[in-house]
Design a protein that fits this description.
The complex is a heterodimer of chains A (241) and B (287). With 241 residues, chain A is of the alpha+beta class. Chain A has 4 helices and 9 strands, in the order E-E-E-E-H-E-H-E-E-H-E-E-H. The longest helix of chain A has 37 residues. In chain B, 28% of the residues lie in helices and 32% in strands. Classes of the chains: A alpha+beta (241), B alpha+beta (287). Chain B: GO terms for molecular function: mRNA 3'-UTR AU-rich region binding. Chain B: It comes from Populus euphratica (Euphrates poplar).
Chain lengths: 241, 287
């Protein structure tokens, strides 16, 4: 199948190095301490953060840092063909783990000992890149909850099809069987905190693809920063400052 | 769960006694309602509804299937509700399952009539493509995104909005198939059929706190309830379903009183929902 046509356009009309449209909204869940909706094209996720609060299960309490927990769930209607999935299947457990580890890395957990932070992400529409979208949504939700963080982690994926590196794969491109590199970075300190790839790729191509994904992450970081700034301005305005 | 101090509990109960609730509403007033339709592009129909801080999404997906052998002239409808942990940490893991099942069953009972399919909110025989062979199966999924009480009413309204947003593709059945053969079908991507949703009932839940009952309770108010009665009422004023929750017993005369109050309130609610739904549809068309 042809994923990049001779004019250099992809199936959804994007250029190889073009990202899908980003949209973010802070404060979607009234009762949560922090929440955000993050959209990358047709992929749409909601993240909600509860905490820091008292540890619910005493045996899990950590005396010198906060306990971070994460649950990933997909809505029944999120995929093209409707399927009723059992909760806690292997895929969602793995993604929960990935998100938890990535977020734990950037939260200053040592400032909140003996407490618990819960991150819940819910996929409303899945069109490739849910992992990245979830991490970006979680970052915004954590920032909205006012939880101290080292940096704003952002994530983006890139792939390699028709011997062209492609940024931010959608579902059709993702299921084409090519490599899918998901990267998460701390943009300020320029460090990679998450790196996952399936399928195989020559080393020198891999570097290009990964570099592309890192560039994508940085673009998302800029966008997230703008959204947060705008939100802070709104809050300031409402307080009449 | 809601943790309230003794003072807060007294405040909520006192407010309800004096017909002035904590958020300034009267006992029979709803919070502001807003509806958006077509929020899930891959579904046949969808809607998001907000009632105060409660937010739910309903989606309708249609798939071709075989009708039940006992009812060859009727399509099938299944309602599932999921409570996302995003709405409440309590719903984490399997924690939301009990409530999800309770809500699914209550909705099925209130909107889709009995086992025979009689009294359903939508005309099930309109889902038939070829009698006894092919019909549309409707899967209605509800998702609770933010919970601040009154989930059943919100889900009922969301499903009503999603159904009126639903377009089912027109299907051509190839002639010539005879006997037990499954006929070939041609699904149109251009022509869509709409449902007649004027018969879909609304659900009004009356929550009894102390000696009075209130509509559209928030989760703080729900934590103080002794029992709640959900009545589903159609536009004509017919009672389509009834369920009672909570442990306290109710006097039969109180129940019939509650039903007549619910009927009165449902008239306003139906009008409010209809105008919101048509406004949402108009908004969607403009986009």
């Amino acid at each position: 199948m042809e994923f990049v046509n001779p004019e250099g356009l992809r199936l959804d009309g994007r250029r190889p190095m073009e990202m899908r449209q980003l949209r973010a909204q802070i404060g979607a869940v009234a009762k949560a301490d922090g929440s955000a909706v993050f959209e990358m094209g047709n992929t749409k996720v909601i993240a909600a953060v509860y905490g820091p609060r008292e540890v619910q299960n005493r045996s899990q309490q950590i005396n010198d840092q906060a306990l971070v927990r994460c649950e990933y769930s997909m809505a029944n209607f999120s995929t093209g063909d409707r399927r009723r999935k059992p909760k806690g299947d292997r895929r969602s457990t793995e993604i929960s783990l990935v998100i938890r580890q990535t977020m734990e890395e950037c939260i200053l957990t040592n400032l909140m000992p003996r407490s618990q932070i819960d991150i819940y992400v819910q996929v409303l529409q899945a069109d490739g890149g849910t992992r990245s979208a979830c991490i970006n949504a979680a970052t915004l939700a954590l920032a909205d909850a006012g939880i101290p963080m080292r940096d704003l982690v952002t994530s983006c994926s890139a792939g390699f099809l028709n011997s062209t590196p492609l940024l931010d794969l959608n579902y059709v491109e993702d299921s084409a069987g090519g490599p899918d590199v998901t990267v998460g970075i701390l943009p300020k300190v320029d460090k990679v905190t998450l790196l996952q790839m399936d399928a195989k790729l020559p080393i020198d191509t891999f570097e290009n693809v990964m570099q592309l994904a890192v560039e994508g992450c940085k673009a998302i970081a800029n966008y997230i920063r703008e959204v947060l700034l705008e939100n802070t301005k709104q809050l300031e305005y409402r307080r009449g400052l | 769960m809601v943790g309230l101090s003794l003072g807060e509990k007294h405040f909520i109960q006192g407010g309800i006694d004096q017909n002035l609730r904590s958020d300034g509403r009267k006992r029979d007033a709803y919070r502001p309602i807003s509806i958006e339709t077509g929020v899930i592009p891959q579904a046949n129909g969808s809607a998001r509804i907000r009632i105060g801080a409660t937010e739910v999404i309903a989606s309708v997906k249609a798939e071709l299937g075989r009708p039940n052998a006992l009812q060859p002239d009727k399509g099938k409808v299944a309602i599932f509700v999921d409570c996302s942990p995003v709405a409440e940490p309590m719903f984490e893991g399997r924690g939301g399952e009990e409530l999800s099942t309770e809500l699914s069953v209550a909705l099925q009972r209130c909107l889709m009539g009995g086992k025979s399919g009689a009294g359903a909110g939508i005309d099930l025989s309109s889902l038939i493509v070829a009698e006894g062979k092919i019909c549309w199966d409707l899967y209605i999924d509800g998702l609770v995104i933010s919970s601040d009480g009154n989930l059943l009413d919100a889900l009922g309204a969301a499903i009503k909005a999603a159904l009126s947003n639903t377009g089912i593709p027109r299907v051509q059945v190839a002639a010539g198939a005879s006997g037990d053969e499954q006929p070939e079908v041609d699904i149109s991507d251009e022509e869509f059929l709409q449902f007649d949703t004027s018969g879909v009932p609304v659900i009004v839940t009356l929550t009894k706190v102390g000696r009075h009952y209130i509509v559209d309770a928030t989760s703080e108010e729900e934590s103080q309830m002794s029992s709640a009665v959900s009545v589903s009422i159609s536009r004509k004023g017919h009672i389509c379903g009834l369920s009672k929750r909570g442990s306290a017993g109710l006097d039969p005369s109180v129940i019939s009183d509650m039903i007549s109050v619910a009927r009165h309130i449902s008239e306003q609610l139906i009008n409010k929902l209809d105008s919101e739904i048509s406004a949402a549809e108009a908004d969607e068309d403009e986009m």
